[in-house]
C-alpha cells in the first residue's frame, strides 16, 4: 500500500509547522486513513529532503493533538480525529451512551451506595480530633495502622502495626517506593506487558523499564536471571496475583524461584497486590518469602469501592526512612479521614462483606465472558476485574479500538501496557464492570466479538 506523503514544494517555513498542517489536512480528508502506519522519521525526512529532527518535531506536535500515536520499535499510527482526545481507559463514564469496558474497576450496586452513605453520616461519631487536626505521624495514625495490620493478616501477611505505612492507594505507594529505592538511569524489570502506571512512573522518574518474557504464571525465571546476569537490575516489579493486564496467576513455586534469583543478584522487589484480596485461594505474598527485600502494596480501591483510596505499604526496616522521606515529599501523609473510613470498615467487618459480594458478582460476570468469548483467544480469572483478548490476524489494536468505539464501546488498547522494549502486540484489555446491567454487558461483549468475525473495514462518519 502506498502511504501518502506531502508535496515538498508546498511546504513553507517553518517546515515542521507546515508539515503538521499538511498531515492534519490529509487525516481530515482521509488521505491518511485511521490506523495507517506512518513512515519512520528517517524515511520521511529522506523523501522530503528535510532533517530527521524536523520530522520528529512535527510528529510530536501531532501526538500532542492526539492525531497520531506510537512508540519506538512499534511504529506510529493515525488515530481517529472524530473521537475524544482522551484515551478511553482514562475517561470516566456512567451507564450512558458508551459502554465503557476500558476501566478496571469493581462492580457495585445499591449496597455500596447505602453502605458509604451510612459510613459518611456516622463518621463524626467517636471521631477524635487527631483524625482531622494532626499533621503527624506521617506514616499514619496508630489506630489506622493497627486496622491495616488486621487487614493485611487477611491478605496472608502477618505484620505488626509499626511495619504498616498508610498510603492513598497502590499507585501512591508505587510512586513512593520507586522514588525511595531507585535513582535515574537504574533498571526496573517486569513482564513486557505490565501495569500501565509502572510504565508511566518509570518514564517520569527517568528509570529504564525492561520488559521480560512471560508465560501463564508471569515472568519466566530464565528471563529474569538472564536480565540480572547481563545488567545491573535494581528492582523487579511484580503483580503476582491477577496481573494487570494479563490476569496471570503466579504459583508458589514460581514465587520461590523468582525470590531465589532476586537474592542471588541482590534485586529489590515491589509487590503490587491490589487485586489480591479478591482471590479466595491465592498463594502467600512474595513478601512472606523475602521480607528483607520486598515492598508490599495493597489497597481498598479494587476490592471495595474506587473512591476509598486507602492503601497499605509494608517494607523492610532498612528502607523505611527513605520511603517515609518520599511520602512526606509527595503528599506529607495519607488522608486520615479516608483512612478512618477504611479502618472502621475493617474492624466492623464491612470490608470483608464487600469483598465477598465482589467475589460473587465477578464470578457471575465471568460466566457471561465465557459464554460470549467462546472460541476466541482470551485469558481471564473468575475473580478478575478484566480479561485480556488477543486479536486475530488482520486486526491491529488501534483499528480494533476505533471500530469498537464506533459501536459505542470503549476498551483499553495495548499501547499503555507495553514496556519500551516490548514487541508489537495486538490485543485489548476488557473490563467486566463497565456497566451495572449484566444484559448491557453481554450486549457489549457480543458486539466486540462479532467485530472479529470479519476483516476490518474503513470507519465512515456522517458529515
Automatic annotation (TrEMBL):
<keyword id="KW-0663">Pyridoxal phosphate</keyword>
<dbReference type="InterPro" id="IPR015422">
    <property type="entry name" value="PyrdxlP-dep_Trfase_small"/>
</dbReference>
<dbReference type="Pfam" id="PF00392">
    <property type="entry name" value="GntR"/>
</dbReference>
<dbReference type="InterPro" id="IPR004839">
    <property type="entry name" value="Aminotransferase_I/II_large"/>
</dbReference>
<dbReference type="InterPro" id="IPR036390">
    <property type="entry name" value="WH_DNA-bd_sf"/>
</dbReference>
<dbReference type="InterPro" id="IPR051446">
    <property type="entry name" value="HTH_trans_reg/aminotransferase"/>
</dbReference>
<keyword id="KW-0808">Transferase</keyword>
<protein>
    <submittedName>
        <fullName>Aminotransferase class I/II-fold pyridoxal phosphate-dependent enzyme</fullName>
    </submittedName>
</protein>
<feature type="domain" description="HTH gntR-type">
    <location>
        <begin position="13"/>
        <end position="81"/>
    </location>
</feature>
<dbReference type="InterPro" id="IPR015421">
    <property type="entry name" value="PyrdxlP-dep_Trfase_major"/>
</dbReference>
<dbReference type="GO" id="GO:0003700">
    <property type="term" value="F:DNA-binding transcription factor activity"/>
</dbReference>
<dbReference type="GO" id="GO:0030170">
    <property type="term" value="F:pyridoxal phosphate binding"/>
</dbReference>
<dbReference type="GO" id="GO:0003677">
    <property type="term" value="F:DNA binding"/>
</dbReference>
<dbReference type="InterPro" id="IPR000524">
    <property type="entry name" value="Tscrpt_reg_HTH_GntR"/>
</dbReference>
<comment type="similarity">
    <text>In the C-terminal section; belongs to the class-I pyridoxal-phosphate-dependent aminotransferase family.</text>
</comment>
<dbReference type="InterPro" id="IPR015424">
    <property type="entry name" value="PyrdxlP-dep_Trfase"/>
</dbReference>
<keyword id="KW-0805">Transcription regulation</keyword>
<keyword id="KW-0238">DNA-binding</keyword>
<keyword id="KW-0804">Transcription</keyword>
<keyword id="KW-0032">Aminotransferase</keyword>
<dbReference type="Pfam" id="PF00155">
    <property type="entry name" value="Aminotran_1_2"/>
</dbReference>
<dbReference type="InterPro" id="IPR036388">
    <property type="entry name" value="WH-like_DNA-bd_sf"/>
</dbReference>
<dbReference type="GO" id="GO:0008483">
    <property type="term" value="F:transaminase activity"/>
</dbReference>
Amino acid at each position: 500500500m502506498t502511504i501518502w506523503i506531502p508535496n515538498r514544494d508546498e511546504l513553507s517555513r517553518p517546515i515542521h509547522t507546515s508539515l503538521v498542517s499538511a498531515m492534519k489536512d490529509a487525516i481530515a480528508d482521509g488521505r491518511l486513513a485511521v490506523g495507517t502506519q506512518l513512515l519512520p522519521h528517517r524515511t520521511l525526512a529522506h523523501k522530503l529532503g528535510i532533517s530527521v529532527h524536523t520530522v520528529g518535531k512535527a510528529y510530536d506536535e501531532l501526538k500532542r493533538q492526539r492525531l497520531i500515536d506510537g512508540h519506538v520499535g512499534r511504529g506510529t499510527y493515525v488515530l481517529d480525529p472524530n473521537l475524544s482526545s482522551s484515551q478511553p481507559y482514562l475517561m470516566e463514564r456512567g451507564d450512558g451512551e458508551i459502554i465503557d469496558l476500558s476501566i478496571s474497576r469493581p462492580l457495585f450496586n445499591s449496597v455500596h451506595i447505602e453502605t458509604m452513605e451510612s459510613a459518611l453520616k456516622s463518621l463524626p461519631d467517636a471521631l477524635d480530633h487527631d483524625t482531622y487536626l494532626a499533621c503527624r505521624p506521617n506514616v499514619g495514625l496508630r489506630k489506622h495502622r493497627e486496622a491495616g495490620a488486621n487487614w493485611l493478616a487477611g491478605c496472608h501477611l502477618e505484620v505488626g502495626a509499626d511495619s504498616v505505612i498508610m498510603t492513598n492507594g497502590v499507585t501512591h505507594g508505587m510512586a513512593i517506593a520507586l522514588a525511595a529505592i531507585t535513582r535515574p538511569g537504574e533498571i526496573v524489570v517486569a513482564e513486557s506487558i505490565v501495569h500501565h502506571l509502572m510504565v508511566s512512573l518509570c518514564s517520569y522518574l527517568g528509570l529504564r523499564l525492561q520488559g521480560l518474557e512471560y508465560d501463564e504464571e508471569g515472568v519466566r525465571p530464565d528471563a529474569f536471571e538472564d536480565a540480572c546476569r547481563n545488567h545491573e537490575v535494581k528492582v523487579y516489579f511484580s503483580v503476582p496475583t491477577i496481573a494487570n493486564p494479563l490476569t496471570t496467576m503466579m504459583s508458589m513455586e514460581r514465587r520461590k524461584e523468582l525470590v531465589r534469583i532476586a537474592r542471588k543478584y541482590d534485586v529489590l522487589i515491589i509487590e503490587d497486590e491490589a487485586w489480591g484480596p479478591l482471590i479466595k485461594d491465592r498463594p502467600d505474598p512474595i513478601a512472606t518469602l523475602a521480607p528483607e527485600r520486598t515492598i508490599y502494596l495493597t489497597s481498598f480501591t479494587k476490592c471495595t469501592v474506587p473512591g476509598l483510596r486507602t492503601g497499605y505499604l509494608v517494607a523492610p526496616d532498612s528502607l523505611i526512612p527513605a520511603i517515609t522521606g518520599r511520602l512526606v515529599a509527595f503528599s506529607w501523609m495519607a488522608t486520615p479521614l479516608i483512612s478512618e473510613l477504611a479502618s472502621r470498615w475493617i474492624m466492623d467487618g464491612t470490608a470483608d462483606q464487600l469483598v465477598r459480594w465482589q467475589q460473587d458478582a465477578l464470578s457471575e460476570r465471568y460466566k457471561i465472558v465465557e459464554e460470549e468469548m467462546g472460541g476466541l483467544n482470551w485469558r481471564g480469572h473468575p475473580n478478575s476485574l478484566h480479561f485480556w483478548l488477543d486479536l486475530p490476524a488482520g486486526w491491529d489494536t488501534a483499528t480494533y479500538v476505533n471500530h469498537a468505539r464506533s459501536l459505542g464501546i470503549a476498551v483499553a488498547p495495548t499501547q499503555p501496557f507495553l514496556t519500551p522494549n516490548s514487541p508489537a502486540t495486538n490485543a485489548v484489555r476488557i473490563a467486566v464492570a463497565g456497566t451495572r446491567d449484566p444484559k448491557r454487558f453481554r450486549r457489549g461483549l457480543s458486539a466486540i466479538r462479532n467485530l472479529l468475525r470479519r476483516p476490518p473495514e474503513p470507519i465512515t462518519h456522517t458529515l
